[in-house]
Amino acid sequence: MNKLLLIPFIALFVVSCDNFEDEYIETNPTYAINWEAAADSSSSSFVSVYWNSTKHHFNNDNFGNIGQYDYWPEAHGLDVLVDAYERTGNEIYKQRIYEFYEGVKAKNGGKFWNNYYDDMGWHGMAHLRAFEATNDARYEASAKQLWEDIIVGWNDYDGGGIPWNHEDNDAGKSKGIPSNGPAAIIAARRYQKYPNEVVNGADNLVWLGRIYDWMKENRVVIQSGRVFENIDDKNGDWTYNAGTYIGAALEYYNITGNKVYLNDAIKTADWTTSTLINSTNSVLSDWAEQQDHDVNLFKGIFIRYFTELIMHKDLPESTRKRYIGFLKRSGESLWTKATTKSPVVLYGYKWWELPNGTTALRTQLSGCMLMESLGKLKKEGYIE
């Protein structure tokens, strides 16, 4: 999107931001924030600034630059569109979901297949959500095809698991949570939606069990809930890995009713919210956050599955209250310390520092996911 295309939107948005500022009153030490209004401003700004209205995909930053090989962030852009559409019912988001399909497919060479199993996993989850939200049959077909493409990556080398990419299919040395976490969630959700579906010789509940057990046995410290890539390197512990493990555990619990899996989710959520944080303000953080980097998107992924845990009916109320407090603390820090609101809403990649003028897509996505989460919790009555 050319910068000049933002001018009509900017004039409109300044008014909405000015009105929004009246929606909350400063107190000491935090703001009483209207989270639904914040989510509205956040997602409408995201679509207006980052959506490429010609090519029908998301630009890489707020100045209209295109990351030609950015495939996996597009899936999370689709997730934000679905979040906003489900929360508001606004047809603008539904139209962008419709346009996204052909636009991103064309950007990826006329297909949704990708060399990386984790990248296809993000799309597989987002496409299924898009289908459920809009009943667009194209997304049902692509979600199924993506799942079939992902599950062929499973191999029995070193006990199983799905590797990072196709080149590693034989050795399997790059197996980890990034590929297996999304795959487990897809298996669980597809089993619940298509209970008779068989893929690569097994039904989806079997695949869920295989993938989840591999993650728990090979990438989780059972006692603490720590999710790791290398047990000897804590700099390889990432919020998004914890998030998809929580999501998989919660889906497994929904299917089986076995509280082992609910407890798995809670334990990892407790570990994440006490460990993967900034030591000064206890706000969610990954240590390697930097300008225009994949890691800036990780927090938003954690927030997505953490929110599902918060909203689960079987979560103990005392735990729910504690988690909501953590989420609000991160949201208050982002909105009051790390967000520019005029002429458009832009986020900093550290949720306590303002952006420096350029906000990359990954950074903006994480902020949008946090605001959509808090807006949803407010709308559903979890936040007063």
Describe the SSE topology:
Layout: H1 7-21, E1 25-26, E2 31-32, H2 35-50, E3 51-52, E4 57-58, H3 72-88, H4 91-107, H5 117-134, H6 137-151, H7 177-193, E5 198-199, E6 202-203, H8 204-219, E7 220-221, E8 226-227, H9 239-256, H10 259-275, H11 298-310, H12 317-337, E9 339-340, E10 346-347, H13 361-379
Antiparallel strand pairs: 1-2, 3-4, 5-6, 7-8, 9-10
Give a summary of the structure in a few sentences.
The protein is mainly alpha-helical and about 375 residues long. The chain has helices spanning about 5-20, 35-50, 70-90, 90-105, 115-135, 135-150, 175-195, 205-220, 240-255, 260-275, 300-310, 315-335, 360-380, and strands at about 25, 30, 50, 55-60, 200, 200-205, 220, 225, 340, 345.
The proportion of residues in beta strands is: 5-15%
- Uncertain runs are 1-30
Rounded Rg? 20 Å
Reported for the largest beta sheet, the result is:
2 strands, antiparallel
* Termini Cα gap: 38 Å
The average pLDDT is 92
For this structure, the CATH topology is Glycosyltransferase
- State the helical fraction: 55-70%
Q: Could you say which overall geometry the principal axes of the C-alpha atoms support?
A: globular
Give the name of the CATH architecture. Answer: Alpha/alpha barrel
What order do the helices and strands follow? HEEHEEHHHHHEEHEEHHHHEEH
At the first level of CATH, what is the class? Mainly Alpha
What is the structural class?
A: mainly alpha
* Count of beta strands: 10
Count of alpha and pi helical runs: 13
How many individual domains?
A: 1
